[in-house]
Amino acid sequence: MVERVQEIPDVLLTTNSSGNKPSNFPDVVARSEWQQETMSNYCLGINGSLLNYSREQNEMLYKHLIYNDKYGIIYCVVPKIGCTKMKLLFVLLEEHYTLEDLLVRNLSVSHKSHLRNVKTLWELSATKREARMRSYYKYMPVRDPLERLVSSYLNKISRRNMRSKFFLNLRQDIIREFRLPSDTNKNASDDIDSMVPTFKEFVQYFIEYRHLMDNHFQPMLDICQPCLVKYDFYPNFHSLSYDMDYILQVFGIPRDFYFNDVRIGASLMPKPAAQFNYSSYYDQIDENIRAKLIEKLKPDMQFYHQLYPRMQKYYS
């Protein structure tokens, strides 16, 4: 089983008196500085596999880096790490909507609008892109890869009211591959539309066909490439509210843009670790499959635990 360690790692608490960093967040200031040093050493020590990216991978990176010129800030969008509220924040920063507008709209406005109303670095020329990368504050939220995978399964695979054609087709592919008998016609199953893959079936598919899946299932390393991009801060999913409060104060962004009306805010806030018993899902799969999964997730897990070593999970 997976043993959860809920606490955030200790950091050196230092008095902050420089720049526009809020003095009431000494722990976050120390953590962000420690993370930058840790990532510098981590990236120096890895092999070239994390530094040799294809054009397609670089395109993915720049399409996931959204920015705001008014505040000089860049955010790397990683699905299942609070990205709905983050996109909503950047929609508000671009001033296409007021907070009052969003309070009376469906929550999905942040997902539907961000391609039109939030700017990505991919849209810029190389010169303008590099200028922003050099001077803007950059942050990349992170989450334990095992937990993120369960969250993606629950949200995109096992939901009964799933409407997305892409994910409905993905569910059918998983069922055909890992549930239907080998002698069954895999293209003609009567009830396949109503079948929902188990977590074990999903994991088996993930191990074999991750490269065919969308960004909800792709590594944080591949999406945000932290050994190419020097991020200033790596907020943790389980302290995201606190960490975002720090970022908002650094830039003088109104707190209501993130900590807003309950109709938007409450349902999108990350659940505390104690409320999300994801380890029970891994108890459903046998040791052999679990070992293959861990090997698949190994780079992302090593990256995450460099930043948050006391969030390490152990297996028995």
From TrEMBL:
A Pfam family the protein falls into: Sulfotransfer_2
GO MF annotations, alphabetized: sulfotransferase activity
Subcellular location: Golgi apparatus membrane
Membrane topology: Single-pass type II membrane protein
Enzyme Commission numbers on file: 2.8.2.-
Enzyme type, top EC level: transferase
GO terms for cellular component: Golgi membrane
Signal sequence, renumbered to the chain: none
InterPro entries to which the protein is assigned, alphabetical: Carb_sulfotrans_8-10, Sulfotransferase
Top-level taxon of origin: Eukaryota
Gene Ontology biological-process entries: carbohydrate biosynthetic process
Keywords for this protein: Carbohydrate metabolism, Glycoprotein, Golgi apparatus, Membrane, Signal-anchor, Transferase, Transmembrane, Transmembrane helix
Protein family: Belongs to the sulfotransferase 2 family.
Protein name: Carbohydrate sulfotransferase
Species the sequence originates in: Amphimedon queenslandica
